[in-house]
Amino acid sequence: MILKEARTELHKIINEYADFEIIVRQRIADICAPHCAVCQRVCCRPEYCRENIDSPFLNLISAKSRPDRAFSDERGWLAPTGCALSAGRPPVCYQFNCNKIIDGLPTDQYRYLFKVLSNLVPYIGKRSLGTRHLVEIMDPAQLRKVSLKRFGRRLNEARDALHVIQSFKEPDFSKASSLAALSRVVPIPRILAE
Ligand code: SF4
Ligand code: SF4
Question: 6, 21, 154, 177: which could form a disulfide with 144 (CB 3.0–4.6 Å)?
Answer without folding.
Answer: 6
